[in-house]
Amino acid sequence: MDIRKNSTWIALCALLGVVLAGCVETRTQRVHHEVVDDGTITSHVTSALSNDPRTKTRDIAVQTHGGTVQLNGFVDSTDSKVRAAELARNVRGVQSVDNNLLVRDTRSTMGETIDDSVITAKVKTALIGDPATKARQISVETLHGVVQLSGFVDSDAERDQATVVAKGVAGVHDVRNDLAVKQYH
């Protein structure tokens, strides 16, 4: 009887040792298999952009889905656009970067800026009122009457409908649809 108890006890201890050894990660394993969530990536990219003197983050919106970072909005130069993408790529957990930044003409007047703000508000309101679009998933920026739609949506139909809705707003000259359809793994 003691031999059976000892054999069982030894087998249980051995099994527990194997299980515990499998749970222990080395430093390289933890780093290699570590998954960074999208919210953390977005925060780190936003922080990197705001700490860089060449990028002006007030006009850059950052969104992340499945490790893919979208940079949306407007910058003052091609150098700023390139630098923003470079900074985003260097953040841990970023799989890819969609650089949708547009280089703006810095000669806009105050009236144009106000008109663009009104158009942005009207497009957002129209998207909220449309049952086929989830407005909270869609970012809207406007420059000289050109509306940029960006973010991650659930389907091609929602992406297409957002364009239709935006084009239907008075004052919109053109729509640049940079919406990406979420890929579920």
Notes on the protein architecture:
By secondary structure, this protein is of the alpha/beta class. The protein has three domains: 2-33, no CATH class; 38-103, Histidine-containing Protein, Chain: A (2-Layer Sandwich); 110-181, Histidine-containing Protein, Chain: A, CATH 3.30.1340. 46% of the residues lie in helices and 24% in strands. Strands 1-2-3 form a three-stranded mixed sheet. A three-stranded mixed sheet has the order 4-5-6. Mean pLDDT is 80; it is low at 15-33.
Shape verdict = flat
CATH topology of the largest domain: Histidine-containing Protein, Chain: A
End-to-end gap: 53 Å
Please state the second-level CATH architecture of the largest domain.
2-Layer Sandwich
The class by helix and strand makeup works out as alpha/beta
Highest-level CATH class of the largest domain = Alpha Beta
What tags apply to this protein structure?
185 residues; alpha/beta; Histidine-containing Protein, Chain: A; 3 domains; three-stranded mixed β-sheet; 24% strand; flat
SSE topology:
Elements: H1 2-23, H2 27-33, H3 38-50, E1 60-65, E2 68-75, H4 78-89, E3 96-103, H5 110-129, E4 138-143, E5 146-153, H6 156-167, E6 174-181
Parallel strand pairs: 2-3, 5-6
Antiparallel strand pairs: 1-2, 4-5
Describe, in short, the structure shown.
With 185 residues, the protein is an alpha/beta fold. It is built from six helices and six strands; from the N terminus they run αααββαβαββαβ.
